Amino acid sequence: MTDTLRRRTARAITALVLDGQRRSTGTEGCARLPCPTCLDVQAARVETFVAAGRPVRFVLPAFPGKSPNSAKVLGVLPDTAERLALEYLDGLTARVREVYAPGARILICSDGRVFSDAVGIPDPHITAYQRELHSMIEALPHRGLGLFHLDDVPELAGTDHRRMRELLTERYAEPLDHLRKRIRAGEEVALYRAVTRFLFEDGNTPEYTGSRAALQRDARARAYVVVQRSKAWGELLSERFPGSVRLSIHPQPCGAEKLGVHLVSTADDWLTPWHGVALAEGERFVLVKRAHAEACGASLVCVDGRPSHYALPGVAAA
């Protein structure tokens, strides 16, 4: 493959990822889509794989576990919201294969175990979520996805889940005091605020009897821990999968090293399948919170006896 063809192929692959499903912060907007700046940044990493004739490896920290708030989700296990997201990612690897024969592999790095105690999801729920997610991935037609989680790290084998988190923090995490100072100085504020909002919403259940102010204070404190461990997980992944092209479910500024991607159509740049439900609207699905779907008069659809998604009146169950 000539240098020109290699560069052209790398840019074509990157354009497929950039096309239509971007999560952007909006504060440093791209001039047009696909954005030449973002294309250049991401294509440089992709080109390394193309030069070696290997499948392009994407790493996506995501799919942690279902929110503990039943006003947002249907239950503990993955449902149609996750299925749609996985189908999109699997289909993306197939589209890459059309322009580059070795194709692509997207490694989903399920991070629920990393911060389950900080977000209020019991470890057994994380285990059940990961097991079902694995089954969903195995059933996909293009075989383009893989699954990796904290339990798969050899150095942590033989320890309990609490100790796994402690070791991850000891080896890879930024001290909380340093992180707090950076955020208070204006760094990564959007991420911190988004995590705080999710934690507040997740804790604001019908069973909660405390004050909103107390819940907000608790959410702010736990948000620092979630951000700290998420970044530690990212450091571990960079060490274990060097050179990979990094995808993110969080909005990213123009030219960032990570590429923010939507997994399911939604009007909210921060909403994810594990914080919402799939709602059938005509011929398409959108991602919303469960309470919103029910407020719209949508009907619950079950598949194989299990809650799956919602459908608006007059919309056939998908």
Summarize the structure.
By secondary structure, the protein is an alpha/beta fold.
Describe the structure.
The chain is α/β, with parallel strands linked by helices. The protein folds into two domains: 3-263, no CATH class; 276-318, Wheat Germ Agglutinin (Isolectin 2), domain 1. 47% of the residues lie in helices and 14% in strands. It has ten helices and nine strands. It has helices at 3-18, 36-52, 80-99, 112-119, 123-138, 161-172, 176-184, 189-203, 212-240, 290-295, and strands spanning 56-62, 104-110, 145-149, 245-248, 259-260, 277-281, 284-288, 299-303, 306-311. The strands form two sheets. The protein has a five-stranded parallel beta sheet with strand order 3-2-1-4-5, with helices on both faces. Strand 6 (277-281) and strand 7 form a beta hairpin. The radius of gyration is 20 Å and the shape is globular. The N and C termini lie far apart (44 Å). The mean pLDDT is 91.
